[in-house]
What we know:
Largest sheet: 2 strands, antiparallel
Radius of gyration: 24 Å
Order of helices and strands: HEEHHHHHHHHHHHHHHH
Shape: globular
Amino acid sequence: xxxxxxxxxxxxxxxxxxxxxxxxxxxxxxxxxxxxxxxxxxxxxxxxxxxxxxxxxxxxxxxxxxxxxxxxxxxxxxxxxxxxxxxxxxxxxxxxxxxxxxxxxxxxxxxxxxxxxxxxxxxxxxxxxxxxxxxxxxxxxxxxxxxxxxxxxxxxxxxxxxxxxxxxxxxxxxxxxxxxxxxxxxxxxxxxxxxxxxxxxxxxxxxxxxxxxxxxxxxxxxxxxxxxxxxxxxxxxxxxxxxxxxxxxxxxxxxxxxxxxxxxxxxxxxxxxxxxxxxxxxxxxxxxxxxxxxxxxxxxxxxxxxxxxxxxxxxxxxxxxxxxxxxxxxxxxxxx
Length: 336
């Protein structure tokens, strides 16, 4: 009921895991320094891992955004700008230290895109702060609204004056997305206000802006990296981490990441053989040395990508009512 919402302003009442009271918000603002220290502590622990691929995986899943997301949901974006700046700077330095890859300028835009969109998945907190705050505010208001039969509009939630600076957060969000994805204040605050949907609109604008800066060759490379399963090698870990493969050397894995993110660089001169197939790389041109770590057949990475693409094509054919058999064995007269 509405009186519970009003009472929540004065009591420390948790709703959907968030505290709405003004005192609770003040306490959370005071804890931002502690959050920065916690992020730095997590990053330091990740950087002590002696495997580049594992460090990258942990950096995406455990540090930065996952640690500050709760704060961004309950505090107005203008109150978390300094926190987001500090965490984003820490994560940028951690990316360089963890992978050995140092992006410059617009290359950071590619790194911050999700892996399935051709990036690395290093989400920038400041880009998604408004989406987190708006989605949480709308969810709480809808859950506690007085009249279930009448869905509130976005303007109704703003006018309730329960969530500080919500009006400004909506304005900031609309400046980050395409015109078609902007929040209309008269529309109902329902399913389209979920955080995943709001963040997807921000990501879509970032993808379009990045692609617009590329030439034809760059756009073709970027498009190939957004295809289904193309980032599987980046986001998944090997079933047997102790077995040697093409990514057994951190410098080789970093070279593969540069190729994937279109960051020009080549393998260091001291990398003269593949850790998987033990092929001599010293006599290969720089471009071939860079690509070898993505095409080496030792360790199962190439067959796994082949099987993923094969299964996707077969599924697409069946969905369109086209008979498809996956690598059917053909037994002919000459077969043994």
